[in-house]
Structure formats: structure tokens, C-alpha cells
Amino acid sequence: MQITKDNKKIAAYHGDSDIIVNSLVKCQEYDVVLTGHNHIAHIKKVGDTLHINPGAVNGLRNAKKIKDVSVAIYDTESEKAEIINL
Question: pTM of the entire structure?
């Protein structure tokens, strides 16, 4: 999925294809790429693209209970992202 919000081009993908994730991030067509599925929270800047994975809000990773429950927030004005542990 692709949207534009506050002049930021944002792609979102929730799947397990590393090829797709890497292509979305490395193509540099998006200001932000939001990914999920592996439930490992991170924020990484790759060139001009911010890659955000919010982690797991449901408390599961690979069908196992985890302690690190989190969400991510991205502010289009400041262009800053943060992981919030719940």
C-alpha cells in the first residue's frame, strides 16, 4: 500500500518477503517504509528513506509470547519516529 500524507510518500508492507522489504527501502522512492510481520521493532535510515517496524503490539513473535510489546509513531512534520514500549 502507498499513501501520501503531508507531502511524505509512505509505503506500508506487512509480509515476510525480504526481497520486497529491501526493494521498497532501497529504491529510495519513499520517504518512509513501514513494515511488519517479523515483529522486531526498529527504526533505520537508509539513504533518504526511513524504515520503521513497530514491533509487536499483540505480544507474540513466531507464535511465542514476548515481553517487548511496542508500537511506533511517525510525525510527518518533524520527520521523527519513535518506538514506544508498552
Answer: 0.88
